[in-house]
Amino acid sequence: MTEQRRRRGARNRGRTRTERGPGDELRLEKPSPEAENAPGTEEHAAPVATESAGSKRSGAQRPRALRADRFPVYAAIATVIVAVLAYANALGNGLVLDDRWVLLDNPLVANLSGVWKSFAAPYWPEVQQAGQYRPLVIGSFATDWAIAGNDPRWFHLVNILWHAGASLLVWCLMRQMLSPAGALASALLFAVHPVHVEAVANVVGRAEPMMTVFVIGALLLHDRRNALAPLLFALALASKESGIVFLGLAAGWDIVLRSDWRGALRERRWLYAGYSVVAVGYAVVLAFIFQGRTIMVPASIWLGSSTGERLLTVVSLIPHYVRLMVAPLELSADYNPRVITLATHVSLQVLTGFALLIIILVCLALAWRRSRVAFFALIWIAVALSPVSNVFFASGIGLAERTLYLPSAGFVLLAGLLFEWGARRRVTPTLWVSAVVLALMAARSWTRTPTWKDNRTLVLTTLADHPESYKVHQQAGGILLQIGDSAGSVREYGIAALLFNRDPYFYREVAEAALRKRDFHRALAMLDTSIALMPNHPSPWMRVADSRYNLGQYPQAIAAARQAYRLAQDSVRALVIIALSARAMGDNAAAAEAYRTGLVDHPDSWEIHSGYADLLLDTGDVEAARRESAIGVRLSGGTVPARAVQRRVDSALADSGSLQGTMQKAP
């Protein structure tokens, strides 16, 4: 018995360990040398190869001791290698769906200056008006673009490396609560879990592993009372808004896992003060950037829903969350209406969700008494999922697999505890079962990753899996339109409208398709429906203004453009439409007023300067026109429209000079 205790002490020397005291209370404390060998200390971890105190003194087992000392290094390397290999085939993927808007159509990404300019801009480009603030992600994309252009292989390689880094930090975190073998099992499960495919294999999914790296890194530094923890918390927020969950995870770490939780909070009071400063600063930045802008657009499933209906729907989604964590055989890029439905009454799906919720609450109560690590794991899942759970507010998604990236760290912690429980009883069967589970998970991730190869592959796969989804038919309509199949596009758009008719973005997309065909009347009909569903979004108002202008309906164009500018004062196009419409009506004073507003609100807009130069030229102020046209050319980088205005001004100046010379020669 004495020898066994010495072995346990040696195994835990030099690292944070978990020990059970009265009432099975779990503590995270660095043990003293005396406590390591104290009678009654119970180690709950799975058996691993370690050296005994006796062998250390005698040197008889020195080679084995060296292997045990190196186990953390081997485990870390194995975790990184497995994470990279599990998603290596993502290098064959291209750019899919939202990659177009965030990467290809985003001027911040195409220039290295986007690394710092992104901190003063929303995540989504202006044309989308979808809000969100993720400057660090945009900055990373701009860096990638500067290195490799729009080569998707580089973007995917960087995604894989972020995932490997997140997996490594998960292993570091698990070491604080599990045995070395248990921590490795948990980290490997995280590295290969199929629910991560959307976050890793899709370029814009990078926000998830980036945020996870900084959240877990901040938590590890928080545990060590390191002053850099608030900085990593700030980086987590700059990667994705969900980084705010770090505050709840840090508080849970101190309160749940420490015997003297009051002392732990007191010791880290200055860190919590730093976190508060970061959170307040973040809120101020959001208020400044999104003044007059949309910060978040609710998912289509929540439009027109009541709070009760939303909460019933949240309960009905619990089986999906459990399935995706435990048995992620069926994966989907689409959880839009008809794949999931708004719960307006208590259905079988809702009752199943309530049953699972009760089971989870019972498990929480039991874990509080028997295993604080298990309690913390369950709390981790709930806290990490809270920003997108739709419990407190309607978020921009109903359910999305990529958002389970950080919450899954709590699940793999539970899996690590289960591994240790099995290893304490039957080591060999536990290892075999674990190996089979990891192999199956890795195989599912590997086979799922090519689904994100391109838009066609993704849409066809989703159509086969979920033909009831209106969203996938909408996406199919857009793809068919791009390849010139107008009849097929109309058919798919029609199916989408029949399946779900409350998505304003759907009608806006159909309007865009009509505008490309210059069918302005059909576009206006679609835009009117979009505005009726979501009247305070600026984008459809702006497209109404464009359509009215092209139809020669200038007063209506001005009214729509003014509404768009009222809703989004970063819309330069709205001011341009107002000015052009006013000039077409012969109202140069109204046009000049629009341009002067633009000079104040958007001094760096070449469209405003060049348009104002053209107006000044028509009103006879050639010198002012020359000045404004030069500014427009400089700001635009020499675009064709800006240079055209400058040439017109230069021609007018030349004619003016010639006329002046002729008059001077006259007797």
Computed CA radius of gyration, to the nearest angstrom: 30 Å
Low-confidence parts, pLDDT < 50 over ≥5 residues? 7-68, 658-667
Strand percentage, roughly?
under 5%
**Global outline:** globular
Helical residue percent? 55-70%
Strand adjacency order, main sheet: 1-2
Q: Please provide the count of β strands.
A: 2
- Tally the helices: 33
Structural class designation: mainly alpha
Task: Please tell me the overall pLDDT.
Answer: 84
Strand count, sense and barrel status of the largest sheet are:
2 strands, antiparallel
Descriptive report:
There is one protein chain. The chain is mainly alpha-helical. It has a domain at 70-306 and 372-450. It has helices at 2-12, 33-36, 53-58, 62-86, 98-104, 114-117, 135-148, 152-175, 180-192, 197-201, 207-223, 229-239, 246-256, 261-267, 269-289, 307-316, 318-326, 348-370, 372-385, 408-425, 427-448, 455-465, 470-482, 486-499, 504-516, 520-533, 538-550, 554-567, 572-584, 588-601, 606-618, 622-636, 640-665; strands at 17-20, 26-29. The protein has a two-stranded antiparallel sheet. A hairpin with a 5-residue loop joins β1 and β2.
